Amino acid sequence: MTLFLLAYLGGVLTILSPCILPVLPFVFARADRPFVKSGLPLLVGMALSFAAIATLAAVGGGWAVEANRVGRAIALILFAGFALLLIFPSLSDRAMQPLVRLGERLSGPGRKEGIGGSLLLGLATGLLWAPCAGPILGLILTGAALSGASANTVLLLLAYALGAATSLGLALLIGGRVFTAMKKSLGAGQWVRRALGVLVLAAVVVIALGLDTKLLTKVSSSQTNAIETGLAKALGMEDRMPSGGSASLSDQGPMPPFDGATGWLNSAPLDAKALKGKVVLVDFWTYSCINCIRTIPEIEALHKRYAKDGLVIVGVHTPEFAFERDPANIRKAIGDFGITYPVAIDSNYTIWRAFKNQYWPAHYLADADGRIRYHHFGEGGAAQTEAAIRTLLAEAGRNPGDGMAQEQAQGASAAASGEAATRETYVGFGRGANFASPGGFVRGKPASYAVPARLAPGQWAYGGQWTVELSRGRLNAAGGSITMRFKARDLHLVLGSPNSKPVRFRVALDGKAPGADHGMDIDAAGNGQVTDHRLYQLIRQKSGAAERTFTITFLDPGVEAYAFTFG
């Protein structure tokens, strides 16, 4: 219930954001009509349309985006005809084009009011509504993209849309009274209607030419995002993973099977029969997750130390980004990280959902009877996890001896410094918090971005020609950059290159070559190249977590950027 309340309140706040401005002319164009028969169906249609399109955009891939573009084009044509009929009522007698006649039937003057036309106009408005992806909507969209379409996802998006419709409805009620007062005082109802028609037509032109984002380049939505973030925190839904493990080894229920795995690496498929009498450690991970990468050495050390004593480790690889679904990429990552224990490929999230898991990394420990007795989320807790393993092995009649696991970690796998003040930051519009380029994101379309002269801690910006999608940014022309103000010892960036074509880049710290502070994937001059889809360690500051300005400039086009992580 808390999630739905959060989504609804986030939608209510949308009216405070500049991204709602292009939609307002379509809503207020019907302010002179009865609210129950006209305004309310319009808002309901808008909410339904938005919920459907947002769900498809989150989980449907490129075909859904293209379908939405076609729908937007049809909606723009419909509203253009609607606007002309408001401006020139005489056109209703001469209109011959089908869409104009449809506009006349829906909104022509003098016709009897009905809800069908308003509902259809609302559906069209929803196609044009591109709300700001603030923290709350970002959580919903990302959850949909990760776990797939579900009734819960649609209902959350609908709650968000209904929240926006509520605030717009209140504005529409006020606007309707103003419209009535103007007609009475001025005796100019037809002129007011024509003025609204001009506003609708102007909005159509602005959206069709992509000028809506350019006209709002000097208007910031950071205040709205700050309110949403505060709301999420107040309701306990801040986008932060909990850390820690079970307080005891109490029974937490049966361990779900691994039937949903789409493939296995380092092992034949493991089922209940193969695991009977074994203590099983299940590790949910994905290969570009820095928190997961830093736990791999301890998991591998546990495997080497306790496999002979009856411990079976199953690494369940559940992807966060689309490129992590490729079995070849997973196989390469396993080799790069030196993983020798069995890995189940869970690209359809079947095992993830069976465990009701929500986090990377997450560890679940089952006893020899197949009952989950322990869990741990996030990094850390290696000693606690090993102690739980030893206890459950002893319960199963095994004697693990006195020696403890000895992990060996280096490079990006080394433990975090514990000093990082900057949080993981995604660079797609779905969860792109603290984005500082003027005008915000242009969603799913090529656009030119600029880097502000000054960035606050945690802020970041694109520079150059990019197409920003739900979970990533794609560089359209050489010379593009990403700049971030951060405080951490280590800075990593998840990057990829289509078809593994090398993309050269250069990194700078405070405008200079990183020198001794370079990461393992660049040299002291800041030079490197993107070849695979993976996490790249770009900065490791020798003096610890100092606050710096990081810039990466790509010398070739085509790179895909996903997320910053820190340590």
Please tell me about this protein's structure:
The structure is a single chain. By secondary structure, the chain is an alpha+beta fold. The protein folds into three domains: 2-234, no CATH class; 244-413, Glutaredoxin; 425-566, Jelly Rolls (Sandwich). The protein has helices spanning 2-12, 24-28, 35-59, 62-87, 91-94, 98-107, 115-128, 135-147, 151-186, 189-208, 211-215, 222-234, 272-275, 290-306, 327-337, 350-354, 382-395, and strands spanning 244-245, 263-265, 279-285, 311-317, 343-345, 362-366, 372-377, 425-426, 446-449, 460-468, 473-475, 481-487, 490-496, 503-509, 527-530, 534-540, 547-554, 560-566. It is globular, with a radius of gyration of 27 Å.
Average predicted local confidence, pLDDT: 78
Estimate nothing, just give the exact number of structural domains. 3
**β-strand number:** 18
Major pleated sheet: 11 strands, antiparallel
Number of helices: 17
Based on Cα principal axes, name the global outline. Answer: globular
How much of the sequence lies in strands comes to 15-25%
Structural class, from secondary structure content?
alpha+beta
N→C terminal distance: 35 Å
The residue fraction in helices comes out at 40-55%
Query: Ranges with pLDDT <50 over ≥5 residues?
Result: 61-65, 106-113, 213-224
Radius of gyration: 27 Å
Keywords: Membrane, Transmembrane, Transmembrane helix
InterPro entries: Redoxin, Thioredoxin-like_sf, Thioredoxin_10, Thioredoxin_domain, Thioredoxin_ResA/DsbE_sf
Organism: Sphingomonas alba
Pfam family, one: Redoxin
